[in-house]
Design goal:
alpha+beta, Thiol Ester Dehydrase, Chain A, six-stranded antiparallel β-sheet, 6 strands, 34% strand, elongated
């Protein structure tokens, strides 16, 4: 699959339906960054009239994972990827449209290149920040990704 925003959104529908039905959508993907949006609505709310933390986590993970998928695809190697750990912090109620962005594309490229050159697994942290329409950070997620070249 070519890694485009359209194909990633189709992937959500087919492989991650919980993200799709709660409104998570990729709006941009480049070599350097990935952006996903999700709007607070009835289907993704918590009892406190804001967006449920797990919906925010899905959008945040998508921005990091899509970039990892992009660089795996560009490597032309069979590489497995896995989230090994994650941390999050919440600083404001998530209401309205929340935009998550990860700008660690070049770090991912370095790690994928090293994995393919050495054959050794690589571990790295990626961050995705969620901001509301006023530009105020509502949540920050850090994901520890591991990548490993699959044996032939």
């Amino acid at each position: 699959m070519e890694i485009t925003k359209r194909n990633l959104n189709r992937f959500l529908f087919l492989k991650l339906p919980a993200a799709w039905w709660t409104g998570v959508r990729v709006s941009e993907i480049t070599n350097k960054r990935c952006i996903a949006n999700v709007t607070h609505k009835w289907a993704n709310q918590n009892p406190f009239r804001s967006m449920y933390f797990a919906v925010q986590a899905m959008a945040a993970e998508l921005t990091t994972g899509a970039l990892v998928m992009l660089y795996i695809k560009k490597s032309n190697s069979k590489i497995s990827m896995l989230v090994a750990e994650n941390k999050s912090s919440f600083s404001k109620k998530a209401t309205g449209k929340i935009t998550f962005s990860c700008t660690n594309g070049l770090l991912i490229k370095e790690c994928i290149d090293k994995a393919t050159e050495t054959g050794e697994g690589q571990t790295f942290w990626l961050q995705s920040t969620g901001k509301n329409t006023d530009g105020i950070t509502v949540s920050t997620f850090d994901f520890k990704w591991t990548v490993k070249v699959k044996e032939k």
